[in-house]
Amino acid sequence: LLGHHYTRTFLETAVASMNAGCNLELSYGMRNNVFMHVPQALAMGNITLQTLRDRVRPLFYTRMRLGEFDPPAMNPYSTLNMSTVQSPEHRNLSLEAAVKSFVLLKNVQGTLPLRAQDLAGKRLAVVGPFADNPRVLFGDYAPVPEPQHIYTPRRGLEMLPANVTFAAGCREPPCQQYSRAEVVRAAGTADVVVVCLGTGVDVETEAKDRRDLSLPGHQLELLQDAVK
């Protein structure tokens, strides 16, 4: 709130936040954070003891529901392992969520869907910094699963009955170093080209905003070369 000039001190911020209904502060790495001033606000009468109790109660209720105060043997969450997380039921649900979240902006001349039977013997090129880099496929605040469970575009497309070639063009999303020859070589003789571009946490995250919505670095150039 200080940065927005809504309050002038952490004490004022603590009072305004508590009275507005906020009961949890994310301040990783800060020794003297905002809510450390709650006792002072309480002593000064800026917040009431009842307000403090109302804010704390749902926090502990949630922690109790998570079993944090139970013996580990009684906590059902402590028995979860990779076989549960990566069960067929969960993987199928993830696949369904992915399919239903896709947004198709254009489909000129019915290019999509690509059918496996139509790709038999065809040459398919998958290019771009997002084509085969598992690390960049997850957004801010996303858990990173075990590598063997990550399917990059390249890994998924190689399951099709096609002759798949790959070229990153640039190793990371900022795409400051770009190999045009690599992309042209992969895409030039292909029947189908899949270009994988984007930003990722290297380019934008919380507190790391961008000035425009353009593709970073040489990514637009990469796209134009692949199209040519």
UniProtKB/TrEMBL annotation:
<dbReference type="GO" id="GO:0046556">
    <property type="term" value="F:alpha-L-arabinofuranosidase activity"/>
</dbReference>
<dbReference type="InterPro" id="IPR036962">
    <property type="entry name" value="Glyco_hydro_3_N_sf"/>
</dbReference>
<dbReference type="GO" id="GO:0045493">
    <property type="term" value="P:xylan catabolic process"/>
</dbReference>
<protein>
    <submittedName>
        <fullName>XYL2 arabinofuranosidase</fullName>
    </submittedName>
</protein>
<dbReference type="InterPro" id="IPR017853">
    <property type="entry name" value="GH"/>
</dbReference>
<dbReference type="InterPro" id="IPR002772">
    <property type="entry name" value="Glyco_hydro_3_C"/>
</dbReference>
<dbReference type="GO" id="GO:0009044">
    <property type="term" value="F:xylan 1,4-beta-xylosidase activity"/>
</dbReference>
<dbReference type="GO" id="GO:0031222">
    <property type="term" value="P:arabinan catabolic process"/>
</dbReference>
<keyword id="KW-0378">Hydrolase</keyword>
<feature type="domain" description="Glycoside hydrolase family 3 C-terminal">
    <location>
        <begin position="103"/>
        <end position="226"/>
    </location>
</feature>
<dbReference type="InterPro" id="IPR036881">
    <property type="entry name" value="Glyco_hydro_3_C_sf"/>
</dbReference>
<keyword id="KW-0326">Glycosidase</keyword>
<dbReference type="Pfam" id="PF01915">
    <property type="entry name" value="Glyco_hydro_3_C"/>
</dbReference>
<dbReference type="InterPro" id="IPR044993">
    <property type="entry name" value="BXL"/>
</dbReference>
